[in-house]
From TrEMBL:
Species assigned in the record: Halorubrum distributum JCM 9100
Protein name per Swiss-Prot or TrEMBL: Sulfatase
Single GO molecular function: arylsulfatase activity
Pfam families (UniProt xref): Sulfatase (PF00884)
Bias kind Acidic residues: ranges: 379-390
Family matches, as InterPro entries: Alkaline_phosphatase_core_sf, Sulfatase, Sulfatase_N
Residue ranges constituting the Sulfatase N-terminal domain according to the UniProt record: 23-354
Entries under CDD domains matching the protein: sulfatase_like (cd16148)
Family the entry assigns: Belongs to the sulfatase family.
C-alpha cells in the first residue's frame, strides 16, 4: 500500500519509521489458525487474500503464540503480557490493554469478536474500545434458540438444507450475492460491524476483528470445500466426519482427511471475508494509509500428538501461527527470526505514533518491519536494519489429570503448569510441577516426535541449560500470583455467568 498524504495521520509526528505513514491499523485474528494452513507458509494451501497481504507486506516465518488456546493467548495479543501475569486470572480485566492506550491517545477503537465467549466483558476485553460487540448476547430466550447456540453444527445443517430454496429465490429476484450462505460462525455479523465502523469513523482508528470459522466444528460453505479439494468431498462427508468425532468414535485416515479438508475450507472462507473487509477500506478511501496485521491466536492439532482440536499442549501445531504485517510505505519481505504475539500491542502503538504502556512485555517490531528485505530474512547486524529480539518466546498451558478433561483448566490451581521456550531452531517444554522435560530440534524434527531431553548430548544439554532458567523465571512469576489465582477461581465459582455466555462456551466445547 502507498501513503495518502492528504489523510491526517496519528503517526506523522512520532512514528518510529520515516518510511511508513499510518493513520489506521486493522488487526485481524483468526481462532485456531495454524501457520501451515495458509499459502504464505505452505504453497499447497489456498488463501489468495492472505497471500496478497504477504506479497505486499512482511511475513514472520517463526511467529509463536503464548498459549495453546484463546484465553491463554489473548492476554499477549491485546495486552502484551502473559496469561496469569497480573491477577492470576485468564482475562485482561486488570491489565493495560492496547485499546485503552490507543483510546487515551485519541485513536478511535472498534472491536468485533465472532462469539468467542472468552473474549467478552466477563474477562475485561471491551476495556478501551469505543465500539465493542462480541455477538454473544443475541442467542435468544427460547429453548430452541438456546439449543442452536450450543450446537452450531445443527444450526449449520439447517441453514445448509434450506440453502437451495434461498439461492433459487435470489435468482428469481435477480439478486447476485457472491458470499457463502452459512453464518453459523457469525462471520457476516462481524464483517458487517467492522465495515460499518470503518464507514462511520473519520478520525484515525484501530480496528480488531476476530474470526471463529476455523474453530471446531468446521462448517464451511460447500463452495469453499470445492475450492480446496477435488470436489468429491460433499456435505454428507462433512456430517460423517463431525458425527464420528462428536460420538467419540475412532478417527481413521478417512475421517482425518475429511476434517483437514473441512478445516482448509474454513480457512478459505475466512480468507474471502478478509478480502471483503479490505475492499471496504478501499471503498472508504483509507486503504492507502491503513496497516493490516493478521495472526492466528493459536493453532490446531490433527492427531500429530494423539488428539484433535487444541487441548493443553505446547507443540508447534498449536503454537506456531501465521503473522503477517502489511504496512503502507514499507516494501516488506520475510523475517525468519522468532517473535511472540506479545509484540502486537507495542507494534500497533508504534505504527500509530503512540507510546507503549510500560507494563507491556513485548517490543515493537516496526524497526524489524522497516529492515525486512526481499531475500527472505530480517536484516542482520551487517545490514541496514536490526534483528528481531533474541529472547526466546515463552508459552504456557495448564493440564489436569487427563489431557481432554472438561472443563479445560483455566487457572494455575487447575493442574500442572507447562512452560515452553522457543528460539529459531529449538523447542524446550517443561512440566514445571512434575519436573518433566522435553527438547526438540525443529529443523530435523519439525513435528516434535523425538524428545532429545531423555539422553542429551553436549549441544543439547547446552540448549537445555540456556532455556531452563527462562522457564523457571517465568514459572516463578506466575506462581507469585498463585494466591490471586485461587482467589479468582473461588470468585468465578460464586459468580453467575450469564446464560448466553455459557451457551457460547459450550458451543466451543468448553463445558
Amino acid at each position: 500500500m502507498t501513503s495518502d498524504s492528504s489523510t491526517p495521520s496519528a503517526a506523522d509526528a512520532d512514528a518510529s519509521s520515516d518510511d511508513a505513514t499510518v493513520s489506521n491499523v486493522v488487526l485481524v485474528t483468526v481462532d485456531s489458525l495454524r501457520a501451515d494452513a495458509v499459502s504464505p507458509y505452505d504453497t499447497d494451501r489456498r488463501s489468495p487474500v492472505i497471500d496478497g497481504l504477504a506479497n505486499g507486506g512482511t511475513v514472520f516465518d517463526r511467529a509463536f503464540a503464548t498459549g495453546n488456546w484463546t484465553p491463554f493467548s489473548f492476554p499477549s495479543i491485546l495486552a502484551s503480557e502473559p496469561v496469569f501475569a497480573r491477577s492470576g486470572d485468564i482475562g485482561v480485566d486488570e491489565s493495560v490493554t492496547l485499546a485503552e492506550v490507543l483510546s487515551d491517545a485519541g485513536i478511535a477503537t472498534g472491536g468485533f469478536n465472532a462469539a468467542n465467549g472468552f473474549l467478552t466483558d466477563h474477562w475485561g476485553y471491551p476495556d478501551g474500545f469505543d465500539e465493542f460487540e462480541p455477538f454473544v448476547t443475541s442467542v435468544g430466550s427460547s429453548r430452541y434458540s438456546r439449543y442452536l447456540a450450543a450446537h452450531p453444527t445443527v444450526e449449520a445443517w439447517i441453514q445448509l438444507a434450506s440453502s437451495p430454496i434461498r439461492r433459487l429465490g435470489s435468482k428469481v429476484r435477480g439478486e447476485s450475492d457472491d458470499r457463502p450462505f452459512l453464518d453459523a460462525s457469525r462471520m457476516f455479523d462481524v464483517e458487517d460491524a467492522a465495515t460499518g465502523f470503518v464507514d462511520d469513523t473519520d478520525e484515525p482508528f484501530f480496528l480488531w476483528v476476530h474470526y471463529m470459522d476455523t474453530h471446531t466444528p468446521y462448517v464451511p460453505a460447500p463452495r469453499y470445500i470445492r475450492e480446496v479439494s477435488d470436489g468429491i468431498v460433499g456435505t454428507h462427508q462433512m456430517l460423517h466426519a463431525h458425527a464420528r468425532t462428536s460420538l467419540g468414535l475412532e478417527v481413521g485416515e478417512r475421517t482425518l482427511r475429511e476434517l483437514r479438508t473441512l478445516y482448509q475450507a474454513t480457512v478459505r472462507q475466512v480468507d474471502a471475508s478478509i478480502g471483503r473487509l479490505l475492499d471496504s477500506l478501499d471503498e472508504a478511501g483509507v486503504a492507502d494509509d491503513t496497516a493490516v496485521l493478521l495472526a492466528g491466536d493459536h493453532g490446531e492439532e490433527f492427531q500429530e500428538h494423539g488428539h484433535l482440536a487444541h487441548y493443553p499442549k505446547l507443540y508447534d501445531e498449536l503454537i506456531h501461527v501465521p503473522f503477517v504485517a502489511d504496512v503502507p510505505g514499507l516494501d516488506g519481505g520475510r523475517v525468519d527470526g522468532h517473535v511472540g504475539l506479545d509484540a502486537i500491542p507495542p507494534t500497533v502503538a508504534d505504527l500509530l505514533g503512540v507510546d507503549p504502556a510500560p507494563e507491556w512485555h513485548g517490543e515493537s517490531l516496526v524497526p524489524v518491519l522497516s529492515g525486512a528485505d526481499e531475500t527472505g530474512s530480517a536484516a542482520d547486524d551487517d545490514a541496514d536494519g536490526p534483528d528481531v529480539p533474541d529472547d526466546p518466546v515463552v508459552s504456557v498451558t495448564v493440564r489436569g489429570e487427563e489431557v481432554t478433561q472438561q472443563p479445560i483448566p483455566r487457572s494455575l490451581a487447575d493442574g500442572d503448569l507447562f512452560v515452553s521456550a522457543r528460539d529459531d531452531d529449538w523447542t524446550y517444554i517443561e512440566n514445571v510441577d512434575a519436573g518433566e522435560r522435553e527438547l526438540y530440534h525443529r529443523p530435523s524434527d519439525p513435528t516434535q516426535q523425538e524428545n532429545l531431553a531423555v539422553d542429551p548430548n553436549e549441544e543439547e544439554q547446552a540448549v537445555i541449560d540456556r532455556f531452563e532458567p527462562v522457564v523457571d523465571a517465568h514459572a516463578e512469576l506466575l506462581r507469585e500470583r498463585g494466591a490471586a489465582a485461587e482467589a479468582a477461581a473461588a470468585e468465578r465459582a460464586e459468580e453467575e455467568v450469564d446464560e448466553d455466555l455459557e451457551a457460547r462456551l459450550e458451543a466451543l466445547g468448553y463445558k
